[in-house]
Amino acid sequence: MQEIAKWDPMTRWDPFKELEEMSTRLNRFFGGRKSGEGDESLTVAQWAPAVDVSETDKEYLIKAELPEIKKEDVKVTVDDGVLSITGERRQEKEEKGKKFHRIERSYGSFSRSFTLPDDADGARIAAEFKEGMLNVRLPKTEKPKTSATEVKIA
To answer: How many CA within 13 A on the CB side of residue 31?
Structure first.
């Protein structure tokens, strides 16, 4: 809880500190990460897998870390120039004789979306899932060669 502080007219107003405090309050209200209260009280409302996006002369490569997720629980779609990766990581069920002392990994549904660059060929997209890594390859299209054209002004 915030403490009441005596107003000091010589102290400068810090808008970034105000924004940080407001963000912390909103995160607490919506059940997100709690900051400034130590690791023990850390809670996560939702999660998204870590993703690397790289580019070569021939293609774009999106690598998503999806540990302990089955291939059947992952879906890759392209719709109207947007690539979406969705899925779900299911939480282990408690077994007799097994106690959980701490659960820090995130579970539940996730979704990541990426706007495709103009030179990506969404029709030839390929995805491979192996050992908890999803590799999505987006081949590049040949850029149409443009030539300079002089336009006459009427």
So the answer is: 4
**Could you give the domains of the chain?**
11-45 (no CATH), 51-91+106-139 (2.60.40.790)
Name the band, by pLDDT with cuts 50, 70 and 90, for residue 149: confident
Distances (CA, A) of 114 to 36, 43, 62, 76: 32, 27, 10, 11
pLDDT at 42: 42
Report how far apart the first and last C-alpha atoms of the chain are (Å, whole number).
71
Give the pTM.
Answer: 0.61
Residues 6+ apart with CB under 8 A from 14: none
User: If we measure between CA atoms, which residue out of 86, 87, 89, 83 comes closest to residue 126?
Assistant: 83
Please state, in angstroms and rounded to a whole number, the distance separating the CA atoms of residues 9 and 21. 20
Burial of 92 (0-12, 13-18, 19+ CB in 10 A): exposed
Both tokens of residue 122? 């969404």
pLDDT in tens, 37-66: 444 444 444 678 999 999 999 999 999 999
Q: Is the pLDDT of residue 82 over 60?
A: yes
Residue the block writes with tokens 């002369």: 57
